[in-house]
């Protein structure tokens, strides 16, 4: 039987890590992630997990340590936020390229400068091309569920990629929510034992990890990574369905809300999706045909599936909680443009919530209203900024 | 470099792993060198300090005596010349690419 609990998002992630019982956790504190490893270190001190907990001197070292332990065949985790992820940068790529299925919750926070500790997705968006699988969560339940599934997805024999589990800083990480946690034995049964094919500690079969890989081999290894991302599509789907059979909570690439007959659909990620759902409900009561798509899997990007789901929708608004400074819209917008290329949709970008700027139901209704006018033929900028003072 | 056909991405171990032990021997790195150690045999006292200190196992020996330098792996770091304790040094670093080398 699952248990109903009231916990913050950070506590939910720490609980998931306790139930996963990883072999190694190496982490460094950073707001708003700090509580995750602080709580987890208590589990270690109290003997509730078997984890080797490494208190490192920086995030660069945290990621380096888990790269080493994962190469040694250990199920390995870390967690970070914003500037901590930025400091890991070099090794974030090495983790993916060395095909090490590390799981890393990222409590999304704005990148400096000016310094800001609150939520946006600029940290995770910077890592979108690093070769990690990226899952996003709307609430504590999804953060908890994603963390457990991430172990299976990353360790799938055809995938072998690290997985980033994103949850919005403070909004999810520090707010208490009611949600269901699984029985510890069920989680252990679900994730199973990690049996890597090659490890540094297998002295009967010595291997070299991370050798020089020049003009004559590097490209082949990148090509393998592209292929692994294709397998990740299948693994995310399969694991999400299996998790659904276990818990009653099935997960896919994205979820649709009142999209079937919608004429205007918003698409986005993270905690704001709950707010957007409320806006959809209010407008639906007034007879406006609006809907919402919440993306759970951002990398690999489910472009073909999204294009199919949106085929009948004439006007689409993209919610970007990050700016890419390309003068071409936010990161989700550019991906959506590629996904919908050559089709007749009207597509607009809405950059919102940077540095934790509050985005409420009236903002979302305002966006729908702008899209309604665009549908009726009024001019609307391709990229719009929501909730910023002029 | 050998002309053998290299494996494609479908056949290579993932993540750049090398599954065979001792492969460094096959990978020739001497081309990086800008200075080469020249062994002056008549000065050599066969103390093997150079063999101990060489970071790349490039000092060749036989029955406890130095016999030469493996230029396919020597990167020219110069440590052997630095540590050589012989009264008249037995290893001197010479610039690579001198005119007389091209006649070899």
Features:
heterodimer; A: 390 residues; alpha/beta; Rossmann fold; 2 domains; six-stranded mixed beta sheet; four-stranded mixed beta sheet; 12 helices; 15 strands; 19% strand; B: 104 residues; mainly beta; Alpha-Beta Plaits; two-stranded antiparallel ribbon; 10% helix
The helix count of chain A comes to: 12
The CATH topology of the domain at 32-96 in chain B corresponds to Alpha-Beta Plaits
Poorly predicted regions of chain B = none
How far is the N terminus from the C terminus of chain A? 52 Å
Mean pLDDT across every amino acid position of chain A:
97
How many angstroms separate the termini of chain B? Answer: 19 Å
Q: Write down the Rg of chain B.
A: 17 Å
CATH class of the largest domain in chain A: Alpha Beta
Query: What is the CATH C-level name of the domain at 32-96 in chain B?
Result: Alpha Beta
What do you see in this structure?
The complex is a heterodimer of chains A (390) and B (104). With 390 residues, chain A is of the alpha/beta class. In chain A, helix 1 (9-20) packs across helix 2, helix 1 (9-20) runs parallel beside helix 6 and helix 3 packs parallel to helix 4 (82-97). Chain A has twelve helices and 15 strands. A six-stranded mixed sheet of chain A has the order 9-11-10-13-14-15, with helices on both faces. A four-stranded mixed sheet of chain A has the order 5-7-6-12. Chain A has a three-stranded parallel sheet with strand order 3-2-4, with helices on both faces. With 104 residues, chain B is mainly beta. Chain B has a two-stranded antiparallel ribbon. In chain B, strands 2-3 form a two-stranded antiparallel ribbon. Chain B is elongated, with a radius of gyration of 17 Å. Classes of the chains: A alpha/beta (390), B mainly beta (104). The interface between A and B is medium-sized, with 23 and 15 residues.
């Amino acid at each position: 039987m699952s248990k109903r609990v009231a916990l913050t998002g950070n506590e939910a992630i720490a609980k998931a890590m306790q139930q996963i019982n990883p072999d190694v956790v190496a982490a460094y504190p950073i707001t708003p992630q700090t509580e995750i490893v602080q709580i987890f270190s208590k589990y270690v001190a109290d003997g509730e997990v078997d984890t080797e907990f490494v208190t490192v001197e920086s995030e660069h070292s945290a990621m380096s340590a888990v790269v080493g332990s994962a190469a040694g065949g250990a199920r390995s985790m870390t967690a970070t936020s914003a500037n901590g992820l930025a400091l890991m940068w070099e090794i974030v790529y090495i983790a993916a390229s060395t095909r090490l299925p590390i799981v890393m919750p990222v409590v999304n926070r704005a990148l400096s400068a000016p310094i800001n500790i609150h939520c946006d997705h600029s940290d995770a968006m910077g890592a979108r091309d690093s070769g990690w699988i990226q899952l996003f969560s709307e609430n504590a339940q999804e953060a908890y569920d994603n963390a457990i599934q991430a172990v299976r997805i990353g360790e799938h024999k055809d995938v072998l990629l690290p997985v980033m589990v994103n949850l919005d800083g403070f909004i999810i990480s520090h707010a208490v929510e009611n949600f269901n946690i699984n029985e510890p034995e069920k989680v252990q049964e679900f994730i199973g034992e990690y049996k890597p094919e090659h490890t540094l500690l297998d002295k009967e079969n010595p291997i070299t990890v991370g050798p020089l890989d020049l003009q004559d081999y590097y490209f082949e290894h990148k090509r393998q990574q592209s292929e692994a991302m294709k397998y990740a599509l299948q693994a995310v789907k399969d694991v999400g369905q299996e998790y659904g059979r276990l818990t009653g909570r099935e997960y896919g690439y994205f979820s649709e809300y009142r999209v079937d007959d919608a004429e205007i659909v918003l698409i986005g990620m993270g905690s704001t999706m709950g707010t957007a759902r409320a806006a959809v409900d209010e407008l639906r009561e007034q007879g406006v045909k609006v809907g919402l798509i919440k993306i759970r899997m951002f990398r690999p990007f489910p472009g073909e599936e999204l294009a199919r789901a949106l085929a009948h929708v004439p006007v689409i608004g993209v919610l970007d909680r990050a700016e890419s400074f390309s003068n071409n819209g936010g990161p989700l917008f550019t991906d959506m443009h590629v996904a919908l290329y050559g089709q007749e949709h009207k597509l607009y970008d809405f950059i919102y919530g940077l540095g934790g700027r509050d985005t409420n139901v009236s903002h979302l209704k305002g966006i729908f209203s702008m899209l309604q006018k665009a549908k009726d033929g009024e001019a609307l900028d391709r990229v719009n900024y929501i909730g910023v003072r002029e | 470099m050998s002309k053998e056909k290299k494996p494609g991405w479908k056949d290579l171990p993932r993540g750049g792993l090398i599954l065979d032990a001792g492969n460094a021997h096959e990978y020739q790195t001497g081309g990086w060198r800008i200075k080469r150690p020249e062994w002056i045999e008549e000065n050599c006292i066969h103390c093997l300090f150079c063999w101990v200190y060489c970071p790349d196992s490039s000092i060749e020996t036989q029955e406890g005596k130095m016999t030469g330098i493996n230029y396919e792996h020597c990167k020219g770091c110069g440590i052997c010349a630095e540590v050589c304790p012989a009264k008249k040094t037995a290893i001197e670093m010479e610039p690579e690419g001198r005119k007389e080398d091209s006649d070899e």
